[in-house]
Amino acid sequence: MRNVQPEVFLIARPQLDYDAIAAYLSEVGGGSWLERLDKGDLDNDALNLAEFAGRLCYRSWEPGLNPNVTRVRSEQDAYLQNILSSAHGSVLEHVSFSFALHNVSRVLTHELVRHRPGVAISQESLRFVRLSDIGFWFPDWASADAELMHRATAILGQLEEFQLWMADHFGLDAEGVAFSEKKHKTSFMRRFAPDGVATGLLWTANIRTLRHTIEARTDPGAEEEIRMLFGKIAELMRAEAPALFGDYTVTDGAWIPGWRKV
Ligand SMILES: Cc1cc2nc3c(=O)[nH]c(=O)nc-3n(C[C@H](O)[C@H](O)[C@H](O)COP(=O)(O)OP(=O)(O)OC[C@H]3O[C@@H](n4cnc5c(N)ncnc54)[C@H](O)[C@@H]3O)c2cc1C
């Protein structure tokens, strides 16, 4: 048995093609928006993409392009705050981030996949990947309980030993065993792994979904592993896109948004 810690790796974020944006803006007469980005320190592609999506909706690159628009907010932070406060959340759906979740349990992944819109998921297949050892996370309070740890590690050791016994019993490593047979038996064998077995998942979510899941999964009523993991995701997102995650207050690990249901 391996003692593990759930971890998050932010592995992908938006990247804009400013040449293509310039070409588009010259078509619609919004070049001054790009000049403003050039002049300032507005080099955050995620925030620029959200702003781009919002301005496209109202042709609000600059005053005068749409006769209904006589004034435009030129400051990005204020512009994005207005997106949040007016719940114009669909523009945030263009901005996605990908997280490799490492050494998380099947308890966590099962809860996470309940969040449906705005996500993409690729989960380690335990039909394909054989469990030769069992990774397991113990919260600090559990690690500090000597008798609990003694009994828990004994059970996990037995489950791990049973995995190895089954692989040997089914002859999975013998010469010429068809992959379909390995998959069939590996799938049977995983049934004897605990719900807490450490596994991995690639999770991509857009900003709208991230805002919703961060609130739901850091709530004091949320399960402790997912709560801890979403605390980490929230910290990452606040650093990545401060103007879109700066409205949260954090109280005892609960991330409470200034604007709910964006
Ligand atoms: C603390 C906690 C305890 C929980 N306990 C349980 C439990 O005991 N049993 C259990 O089964 N689940 C439980 N859940 C899971 C919960 O019921 C939701 O399925 C899960 O949190 C997904 O969130 P969501 O419903 O907001 O949907 P998401 O998929 O995250 O969707 C986001 C939002 O989009 C909208 N939306 C999405 N899909 C639809 C749709 N089909 N129709 C209309 N609107 C939609 C809703 O406004 C929704 O809030 C729990 C969740 C939490 C946070």
Describe this structure in words.
Strands 2-3-6-4 form a four-stranded antiparallel sheet. A two-stranded parallel sheet has the order 1-5. A two-stranded antiparallel ribbon has the order 7-8. It has helices at 18-28, 31-39, 45-58, 76-85, 106-112, 140-143, 146-169, 179-190, 207-218, 224-240, 242-245; strands spanning 2-3, 7-12, 96-105, 119-123, 135-136, 198-206, 249-251, 254-256. The chain has eleven helices and eight strands. It has 262 residues and is α+β, with helices and mostly antiparallel strands. α3 (45-58) packs across α4 (76-85) and α9 (207-218) runs antiparallel to α10. Residues 114-117, 212, 216, 219, 221-222 line the site of flavin-adenine dinucleotide.
Compact summary:
It contains 11 helices and 8 strands.
Topology:
Elements: E1 2-3, E2 7-12, H1 18-28, H2 31-39, H3 45-58, H4 76-85, E3 96-105, H5 106-112, E4 119-123, E5 135-136, H6 140-143, H7 146-169, H8 179-190, E6 198-206, H9 207-218, H10 224-240, H11 242-245, E7 249-251, E8 254-256
Parallel strand pairs: 1-5
Antiparallel strand pairs: 2-3, 3-6, 4-6, 7-8
Helix pairs in contact: 3-4, 9-10
Bound molecules: flavin-adenine dinucleotide.
Flavin-adenine dinucleotide (FAD) is lined by residues 114-117, 212, 216, 219, 221-222.
Question: What are its keywords?
Answer:
single chain; 262 residues; alpha+beta; four-stranded antiparallel sheet; two-stranded parallel sheet; 11 helices; elongated; binds flavin-adenine dinucleotide
Overall mean pLDDT stands at 95
Calculate Rg over CA atoms: 24 Å
Quick one: overall form?
A: elongated
Helix content: 40-55%
- Percent of residues in β-strands: 15-25%
SSE order, as H and E?
EEHHHHEHEEHHHEHHHEE
- Helix and strand composition category: alpha+beta
Number of strands: 8
End-to-end separation in angstroms reads: 43 Å
Largest sheet: 4 strands, antiparallel
Strand order of the largest sheet: 2-3-6-4
What small molecules does the structure contain? flavin-adenine dinucleotide
Taking pLDDT < 50 over at least 5 consecutive residues as the criterion, the unreliable ranges are none
Number of helices: 11
